[in-house]
Amino acid sequence: MQLLGLGAALTAAVLFGVGSIALAVAVRRVPDSAGLSAQVVMRLLREPPFLVAMASNLAGFGLHLIALRTIPLFLAQAGISASLAVTALLAVRVFGDHLGALDWAAVAGTGAGLVLLASATGEVGDESAGTAFTAGLFVALGALAVTGLVATRSPGSLATGLLGLLAGFGFAGVSIAARVLPGLSPSVLVAAPSAYALALSGCLAFALYSVALHRESVTRATAPMIVSQTVTPAVVGVLLLNDGIRSGWLPVAALGFAITGIGALTLARFEQTTEQPA
């Protein structure tokens, strides 16, 4: 089961990376002067790369959901962070970007960190949560919304970084809520509070990240987001949902997690492909 989950996470990472590049190609075909409007949306919908991006991200989310429910959260989230390595490699191929020695080391480090994490992974923890845990998700969402509102009204680079960090917490909420869904059938989801927590977390995270991207460079917003959306579910999974680490392998897991995270942070700048001129 864990092999299936890891395979799903890595395949999702590939799809997310492909989606990022496809979206970049589509955005480059729309004039910058058009701004964000219904006209721009219609133009994007007529661009095949945009449709590829949408399909890739939807398929990636489905596979990510499988990973979240079959392997520990720390491994699932680290696996998804490998999408940045995919984006970097595809940016070289599609846009002619250059990978320096540090970039290649980050790509290799991301892969090596995942190998270490997979080797140290133990049993999957709880796949359901009590009322108190679910209530905690909504309390955290409320605090996130209030803090995000304050950050959106604050100027400066520090506020942009904070918005990225908060967006990461929102995306972390999506992963945590997905893990504790009681089932995936429509009848179960309609009655599950965690399903609504998942939807609200995703919407809030998307809004906060969009504001951060509008203010400054993608890297400044993405780097803190990667940290919070990767570390938070990992901590929650181990401390509150009983995700397991093999006996005596905690240092290996910590090292693998750190290497993967550093590699992802180093490669975060390749999300800027959507900002480059055509």
Supply Rg.
18 Å
> How far is it from the N-terminal to the C-terminal residue, by CA?
44 Å
Overall form: globular
**Binned strand content:** under 5%
Name the average pLDDT.
Answer: 86
Q: How many H/I helices?
A: 12
Structural class: mainly alpha
Helix content: over 70%
Order of helices and strands: HHHHHHHHHHHH
The count of DSSP E runs of length 2 or more, i.e. the number of strands, is 0
Describe the 3D structure.
- The protein has 278 residues and is an all-alpha fold.
- The chain contains twelve helices and no strands.
- Helix 1 (2-28) packs parallel to helix 5 (83-95).
- The protein is globular.
Provide key terms for this protein.
single chain; 278 residues; mainly alpha; 12 helices; 0% strand; globular; disordered C terminus
Quick recap:
This protein is mostly helical. It contains 12 helices and no strands.
What's the structural blueprint in terms of helices and strands?
Elements: H1 2-28, H2 38-45, H3 48-70, H4 73-81, H5 83-95, H6 101-120, H7 131-152, H8 157-179, H9 186-191, H10 193-215, H11 218-239, H12 250-267
